[in-house]
Hints:
single chain; 25% strand
Amino acid sequence: MKTTGHNISIITLFLFVVGLGLVVTINLTDACRLETIVVDGQPLDKWQGEFDQLDSSSIIHQPVKKLAESLLDNEGVYKVDLDFQMPHTVVIRTNQFEPVCFVVGMETGKLFGLDQNARLIKIDGNNVDWERPVLTGLPTGNLYSFCTEPRVKKAVLQLEILRSERGDLYHLLDQVDFTEREYLKIQIAGLPYTLMVTAEHLAEDLNRFAQFTEKYSPDLTDIRRIDLRYDEMIICGRGKV
């Protein structure tokens, strides 16, 4: 038992010495001094004039919060992500939003991404999950502005709930149409009919549709629309939507 105790003490002492060495290396030597800043993928070796908040001390002691606040004061910058790349680099990424779905501008036909707050964002074609629904029938403003249609943010939140609860159903959603004021029209891949849901209960409505078809396997051959807006009621119609 004494031997085990001595071994534990030796290991603890070793870890302490290693940790102390790292602290000394980072703070008192040139091993981790800031040398390069990378801004949106572009390395800047001569950054002192542009980033006055930073200096050539250890990268872990840089005033990154102050730097982020300064960058956000610039016109056209809406989000700032900061990261350290040991031993000498600070990485800055601006406006790196992740699209949770897409929207086609009603006026221009241009495709944007939408983040979880319904902000219009650029699409990075090299790193995009295209298995996301497309929203249509909406006016779109300037890049990084928010959709003015109040139902959009509610629908986006509901779509994310559906994605976490029923990913199989979520990935079959082709289009969410906002043209009608009273309801949303949803098109599912491979189905000839349109689903009518509300923005506030989109996930719940689609879950009821999935349960209905899985439980009863109804014959929907001639159906053109299925109204899911009413509790405990599913209305199937053969006419135009």
